[in-house]
Amino acid sequence: xxxxxGQVLVLILSTHTVSLEFDAVxxxxxxxxxxxxxxxxxxxxxxxTMRFVPVKTAEQQSRSMVFKTRDLLxxxxxxxxNRPICVAEAACASTARPPTT
Length: 101
What we know:
This protein has 101 residues and is mostly helical. It is 55% helix and 4% strand.
């Protein structure tokens, strides 16, 4: 990125960029083109209620990466542990007799 003297880089809170499409009429012209998205973000950034977030440090980014990787590994482990249980339950359910009344 090339910045000119006097320009300031600001980051928009991600919840705002996700909800821009559903904001007031006229912000997004029902198109999925990058130029329209950029125009909507610029328009939203000019609002007085817009909140900006600081840039994360390298240490914060590395901690976030470690946390997300650990979370992924825990979810994969749980999936692997639960898979044989589900298969066994399905096998028992298919061989079980219906209750007699």
